[in-house]
Design a protein that fits this description.
11% strand; 5-stranded mixed β-sheet; 3-stranded antiparallel β-sheet; alpha/beta; 19 helices; D-Maltodextrin-Binding Protein, domain 2; signal
């Protein structure tokens, strides 16, 4: 989560300039489709390739409107909630999809899929497909790319210290390793500490899950200051305070990426997409990395799950054109187009089983592709912990209120990492916030 978002921020101005043909969103003629997208590098590639490929082949003109994440989320919510129909297609994540579907804002895709033999819905990785399926059993979005989380570490540093990690470590093993490999120049691990429901709360919630905690029980009892949630949070805060990066309370994905790239930390637990950046041709640590599955305690797996996907607005009068665009952008042929024209390292991966069988992709992705595939396949969006949940989600709770709840609790956690408050006080404050949210759902 937040990984691609951070990378995309730097390209906002360029993308907005390139989106002028569809800046208004509406209109565009009968044989067209209006697409509202988040601004990240993969979407920029999509824009570059659309006219000369999709439009050339189908005759359908695509009018893109591309905005920074916070802006695009607001605009999508406004247009889809009002069913204004200004945009036919929009990028939504597995956080929004079930909620938008429940509200009747999205067109189901099952009929389109059944008539499109070339799309191959069965090739979509099961956890990704499941996360874009609503409670009614229908599919409401198709993924453009996906990610989970895993642990990345410097093999050379570990070898020099005589320290090893299993392929599926426990969090205690990771903490022990962080203490052993740390030096005054190189910290043991980087963990996000920056406030935000998609920053510190993303990795921390996966830790909470595997320690046996949850935000809410199935019957909406708030559990933010329960023993398991508290134990996990204390572990996380202690680990980052004792062996984590400098400036941890302000560190998010971008800061940890820089720390890892510059050799300032020996380990990093974060999004699987980070591996491609660390193993890029111009990375100073290319070839020096090892990878393990997300550390666990009480669960078999603990990696998160996130995907940017395309949904069709129910009010759209161009649903056939919308599906044709989505089928192309989410399909196997598009991946091949990117690989051959832009390089296999730029593939929007993490969504299809077939991607991980491509020899060209395997060669480009080096040692991490199999681990990333396993992380995504092992993700359990409906059952990420040791107890049943009232809403889907691994690193988030799939309810509208979580954006505000998660952000407010994250501010308390960041303060605890900074040493300004105790974990007990932070979680007691968070419990009060969670109880207010839970009260809205009890008895439903």
């Amino acid at each position: 989560m937040s990984s691609i978002r951070t990378l995309g921020a730097a390209t906002a101005v360029l993308l907005l300039a390139s989106a002028c043909s569809g800046a208004g969103g509406g209109g565009g003629g009968e044989n067209s489709v209006n697409v509202l997208m988040v601004n990240n590098p993969q979407m920029q590639d999509l824009q570059k390739l659309t006219a000369d490929n999709f439009t050339k082949d189908t005759g359908i003109k695509v009018n893109f409107t591309v905005l920074p994440e916070n802006d695009v989320r607001d605009k999508i919510s406004q247009d889809f909630s009002s069913q204004a129909g200004q945009y036919d297609v929009a990028t939504i994540s597995n956080y929004e999809t079930p909620m938008f579907a429940k509200n009747g804002w999205l067109a189901p895709m099952d009929d389109f899929v059944s008539k499109d033999s070339g799309f191959d819905q069965a090739d979509i990785l099961e956890p990704i497909r499941q996360s874009l399926t609503a409670a009614d059993g229908k599919v409401y979005a198709q993924p453009f790319y996906g990610e989970s989380s895993f642990l990345m570490y410097r093999k050379d540093i570990f070898e020099a210290k005589g320290v090893t990690l299993p392929e599926k470590p426990t969090w205690q093993q990771v903490a022990d390793a962080a203490a052993k490999v740390a030096t005054p120049e190189v910290r043991g691990i980087c963990l996000r500490g920056q406030p935000g429901w998609g920053q510190v709360m993303a990795p921390l919630t996966t830790v909470v899950n595997t320690f046996g905690g949850t935000w809410f029980t199935k019957d909406w009892q708030a559990q933010v200051n329960a023993p398991e949630f508290k134990e996990a949070t204390k572990f996380y805060v202690d680990l980052v305070r004792n062996h984590g990066e400098a400036g941890a309370p302000q560190a998010g994905f971008a800061e940890c990426l820089n720390n890892m790239t510059q050799g300032k930390v020996a380990m990093w637990y974060d999004a699987t997409v980070a591996a491609g950046l660390l193993e890029a041709a111009d990375s100073p640590i290319k070839g020096k990395l090892g990878f393990t599955q997300a550390p666990v305690v009480k669960t078999d797996s603990s990696g998160w799950l996130y995907t940017w996907a395309f949904g069709i607005q129910k009010a759209s009068k161009k649903q056939d054109n919308a599906w044709k665009f989505i089928s192309w952008a989410s399909g196997k042929g598009y991946e091949e187009l990117v690989g051959k024209n832009l390089g296999w390292s730029k593939l929007p991966d993490g969504k299809r089983s077939s991607t991980y069988q491509r020899p060209e992709y395997k060669q480009s992705s080096g040692s991490f592709s199999a681990m990333a595939e396993a992380a995504i396949k092992g993700a359990k969006p409906l059952n990420p912990g040791v107890q049943e949940r009232p809403a889907p989600g691994i690193q988030f709770v799939g309810i509208p209120e979580f954006t505000d709840l998660g952000t407010q609790v994250s501010q308390q956690i960041s303060s605890a990492i900074a040493g300004a408050v105790t974990v007990d006080d932070a979680l007691n404050n968070g419990q009060g916030l969670a109880e207010k949210v839970a009260a809205k759902y009890k008895g439903q």
